[in-house]
Write a structure and sequence with these properties.
It is a single chain. With about 240 residues, the protein is α/β, with parallel strands linked by helices. It is built from nine helices and seven strands; from the N terminus they run αααβαβαββαβαβααβ. Strands 3-2-1-4-5-7-6 form a seven-stranded mixed β-sheet. Helix 5 (about 95-105) links the parallel strand 2 (about 85-90) and strand 3 (about 110). It is globular. The relative contact order is 0.15.
Length: about 240
C-alpha cells in the first residue's frame, strides 16, 4: 500500500525528512535536561495510575508500540513489569530501530517499516494495547492518519485499547508538526470509549522555568491551561 500527500510523495518519506530535520535536538529531549526529565516522570506516573485503574496484569499484557523510536517507551514498560516477550515495536527509521535493538532484550521484537502499510505484520485482535506517543502529531496528511489509526484499531483485541500520548496544541514555529485535538482522536477512533488526562507543561515554558529551578515545573504545571499534551485510553468494547 502506498500512501501519498496531495497526490505527490508518500507520507512515510516526508515523515523521514521531518525527523531528519530534528537531528541536533537530542539534548533538548535528553533526560539529563531537567525539563525533559520532569515531563517524562510525570507521564510515567500517569501511565502507571492508568494501568492500575484498568486492573491490568502487566506481566500478561501484549503491547505493540507504533513508532517505537530508540526504545525508551518500551524500556519504561519493562520497568513497570511488562514481559519482554509480550512487547514489540514498529519503527519507520532504521537507525532508531537499530538503537532500540541494542538497548532492549532480544525477546522484544522490533520491526522496521511503515505500520500503515504493513497491515498483515500483526494478526488482527492480537494486542491488548497498541501504543503511540507523539507519532500522529508528525503526520500532516489526514488520510494517512486515518489509515494508521484503522490499522492500530484492527490490531487491538476486544476489551483492549489504544494508549495515546500526544500534544493537542500545535507549535506555530514548527511546520513539521501539528497538534492533534481531542475531537480529532474521536474522529480517528469513532468506536472507541475515551478517557483522558491533560498533562505535560508546555515545553518552552518547562525549559524556561526549569533553568531557574526544577521545582517550578510542578508549580507552573498546576495550571491546566499550560499543559499541552493528553494521555488517553481509547477502549475497544469487549465482545
Amino acid at each position: 500500500m502506498t500512501t501519498r500527500v496531495h497526490g505527490a510523495r508518500p507520507e512515510a518519506d516526508l515523515v523521514r525528512e521531518r525527523y531528519a530535520r530534528r537531528q541536533g535536538d537530542e539534548q533538548r529531549y535528553s533526560l539529563l535536561n531537567d525539563a525533559a526529565l520532569l515531563a517524562t516522570q510525570e507521564r510515567q506516573r500517569a501511565q502507571a495510575r492508568l494501568f492500575a485503574r484498568l486492573g491490568l496484569d502487566v506481566t500478561a499484557v501484549r503491547l505493540l508500540e507504533v513508532g517505537c523510536g530508540t526504545g525508551s517507551n518500551l524500556l519504561d514498560l519493562l520497568r513497570l513489569g511488562f514481559a519482554p516477550e509480550h512487547l514489540q515495536g514498529i519503527e519507520l527509521l532504521s537507525a532508531s530501530a537499530e538503537r532500540a535493538r541494542v538497548v532492549l532484550p532480544a525477546s522484544v521484537r522490533i520491526t522496521v517499516g511503515d505500520a500503515a502499510a504493513t497491515t498483515d505484520l500483526v494478526p488482527p485482535a492480537s494486542q491488548d494495547i497498541v501504543l503511540q506517543a507523539t507519532v500522529f502529531s508528525s503526520l500532516l496528511d489526514d488520510g494517512f492518519q486515518q489509515r494508521l489509526a484503522d490499522v492500530m484499531w484492527k490490531w487491538v483485541r476486544p476489551g483492549g485499547g489504544i494508549l495515546w500520548y500526544d500534544f493537542v496544541i500545535g507549535n506555530p514555529r514548527n511546520a513539521d508538526v501539528r497538534g492533534v485535538p481531542v475531537s480529532r482522536i474521536r474522529q480517528l477512533f469513532p468506536a472507541g470509549r475515551i478517557r483522558l488526562r491533560r498533562l505535560t507543561l508546555a515545553p518552552p515554558v518547562a525549559r524556561a522555568v526549569a533553568r531557574v529551578h526544577p521545582a517550578l515545573y510542578t508549580l507552573f504545571n498546576a495550571c491546566p491551561l499550560l499543559r499541552t499534551h493528553v494521555l488517553a485510553w481509547v477502549g475497544k468494547a469487549a465482545q
